[in-house]
Amino acid sequence: MLDADFFRRWMAATSASVDREAERLTALDSPIGDADHGSNLQRGFRAVTATLEKEAPDTPGAVLTLAGRQLISTVGGASGPLYGTLLRRTGKALGDAGEVSEAQFAEALRAGVDAVMTLGGAAPGDKTMIDALVPAVDALDEGGFAAARTAAEEGALATTPLQARKGRASYLGERSIGHQDPGATSSALLVAALAEAAGE
Amino acid sequence: MSDGKQVGIVLVSHSAEVASSVAELARGLAGGGVSVPIAPAGGTEGGELGTSSELIAAAAASVDRGAGVAVLTDLGSAVLTVKALLAEGDELPYNTRLVDAPFVEGAVAAVVTAATGADLAAVEAAAAEAYTYRKV
């Protein structure tokens, strides 16, 4: 079973990972975006860690809902509402249970990913975070956290040959081909942090 | 008509200057002296390019006269942030709508229409109709 501590570890591991990878995320965002993805997410997840320490929510749903709200209010770029919606919808789907099973979490995360697709209008293949998240959720259902991490990383790598159809990168048309998508890359970090929190 | 109360207009841009200048432009083109409540929400709280949910929520609260609030945005995170706030449920005043309209032309149409005392649906329709005006 997964408790509030597990989800706090997830957010802390994500923040640490985004700190380590911020320069790489921003570098990926330079040719096809506006070169702020790393710094925006770093600011957002640091604020998430701080607010979780301060407010100490005590259920999985409350941890993720609070984290999501914090991302929406502090990131300042499109990744704020997108990641914020992902975590908040996942949190809302978990309700107020003190512990949730992996299967319940996988179902909730799928609801979160669906909400991101609705918000941004992106589908798999559009060269967005969805290309890492959808394979991750599918793998989570079948193989657990480690399988989800591998699927998200492969999904992020597979965005390189795609042409962007959403967001700032879509203005570049064919010139977006050949670059790995920064949002899919940070989504893979988020999923990898999940495996880290689970000790896998 | 909505009891003499005017619809509030919020203009969300990545740039504080763009948001406030478009507000000024719309008010000016609507004919000086219109009393429509208009609030810009541009850039981040730190004064950089970006979107701030706090500035958007504060702007919406400041123009809410009880007749609804029409929010116009430029692009990207401005659109997504307003949508995320609307999905939240309690962050924006009751009867706040994201209006699908071109930013500058839509803002002018929204302010002119709101100045007549039109309701939120009419303001939204006028702003959205600005998309149909072709320039060439």
UniProtKB/TrEMBL annotation, chain A:
One of its GO terms (molecular function) is glycerone kinase activity. GO terms for cellular component: cytosol. Signal peptide: none annotated. Residues 5-196 form the DhaL domain. GO terms for biological process: glycerol catabolic process. Keywords: Kinase, Transferase. NCBIfam families: dha_L_ycgS (TIGR02365). This is Dihydroxyacetone kinase subunit L. It comes from Streptomyces guryensis. The lineage of its organism: Bacteria, Bacillati, Actinomycetota, Actinomycetes, Kitasatosporales.
UniProtKB/TrEMBL annotation, chain B:
GO terms for cellular component: membrane. SUPFAM superfamilies: PTS system fructose IIA component-like. Transmembrane segments: none annotated. It comes from the Bacteria. Residues 6-136 form the PTS EIIA type-4 domain. The keyword Transferase applies. Gene3D superfamilies: Phosphotransferase system, mannose-type IIA component. The keyword Magnesium does not apply. GO terms for biological process: glycerol catabolic process; phosphoenolpyruvate-dependent sugar phosphotransferase system. Pfam families: EIIA-man. This is PTS fructose transporter subunit IIA. It comes from Streptomyces guryensis. The lineage of its organism: Bacteria, Bacillati, Actinomycetota, Actinomycetes, Kitasatosporales.
